[in-house]
Amino acid sequence: MAGDRNPRVILWGPGQVGVGALRAVIARPGLDLVGVVVHSAAKDGKDAGALCGMPETGVIATRDIDAALALDADVVAYFASGDYRYAEAAQDIARCLRAGKNVVCTSLVPMCYPPAADRETVELLERACEEGQTSLFNSGVDPGWANDVIALTMTGFASRVDTITMLELLDYGPINQPEIMFDFMGFGHPPDHPAPLFDTTRLAALWAPIVHLVADGVGLPLDRVDTAIEKWLATERYEVASGWIEPGTMGGMRFRLAGIADGEERVVLEHVTRMGEQAAPDWPRHPSPHGGYRVIVDGLPTYTVDIEMHGRGNNMRGLTYATVMRELNAIPAVIAAPPGLLSTLDLPLVTGPVRGGHWTGTLPATADALVRR
After folding, report:
1. What are phi and psi of 358, to 5 degrees?
2. Which of 18, 36, 185, 307 could be joined to 79 by an S-S link, Cβ 3.0–4.6 Å?
3. What is the pLDDT of residues 208-251, one digit of tens each?
4. Residue 358 contacts by C-beta under 8 Å, 6 or more apart in sequence?
5. Phi and psi dihedrals of 213, rounded to 5?
6. Structural contact between residues 286 and 292, judged by C-beta atoms closer than 8 angstroms
């Protein structure tokens, strides 16, 4: 970042998730949008504001990646999907890092904690960071801040911590993403359907890193992470935003990753995911009718923290902002960090802009002390 100017941001991928990030960057005090990378011809050449329902910005979207990366920018906020194109997304991000652009993203889920992620991708990205003298920070909600930031913070209020449990308790029925909901996650299919998320090896590759992050954050070495999946089958036909759930197909899923130390479950991540509020009536629910997240730090004392997100009349928009704002608010800290792959354990306390305040993105008094890389 040159002098005291605002961080200059290229937004890559204004799709289902990235469109919320685009709105946030445009509206954000302290961030300047200078470029937008798109994949579809329909978005090419459009003003960034037109892509997200905001006034014109003068920033024109392009499919020319080389031209975008040639811009004078400090960071790429990368929100193109990585669910089905993990290797391709990693190559995109490495390209940005090599070009001298720091990257914040949600697309490489295991990179929430690089020390526990797959070595091939880690080595690719480490080389790119070294070449470009840049840093990468990947986060989100879950895996992300609803696991690591909240859990680790709450342990600081206990005299003894026995177990840490992080739960997602959500109804995905309002989400209109058939490819993810049905094809990737397996909803609406018979229980023997080979959906990618039913592969426990893949499930562990995606979520076990965040279990290791929390365990490492409290200094607890794990022996292993065990994974289990349970399915709830619909008894009648009903419709959700992504399509129809037929009788005998999966309308609810519950998966669990348990970090084991000395034969005991010590750090547990669990998802209880419904497709429609009527699904899996006997499974745990969040106290909010919209669902949310729960963190339990069991010890002395025991803390239970329930988190719900609202979108001022549009709860899906609220969830989108919850997904992207951790990364966007971390931009100043990522730029300031030494080159390399970052996790929550490497960053200072990241804050957000308060109306009428002067936003810096971190608590200045703690930034130098807590950036450990």
Report:
1. -110, 105
2. 18
3. 999 999 999 999 999 999 999 999 999 999 999 999 999 999 99
4. none
5. -60, -50
6. yes
